[in-house]
Predict the 3D structure of the following.
Amino acid sequence: MVVLSGDGVERVSKSGETDHLPVGELARRQGVKPVNSVDDLTCPGTFESDKELDEFLADLYASHHAGLA
């Protein structure tokens, strides 16, 4: 089996098993930076209106609670 990492480098050991890299190493190789503020996660323009956001949140809430009844 061939497994490629995010940087496109094959990660197969001599025994044929996939090598596992620590999360910190994967983050470093992919240039991932820590989140310093919730504002870092915002994506302006995702919802066209407050109504659209409210509908999304209502659907999300319903889907999370669908199996709890």
Remarks:
- Residues 35-68 form one domain.
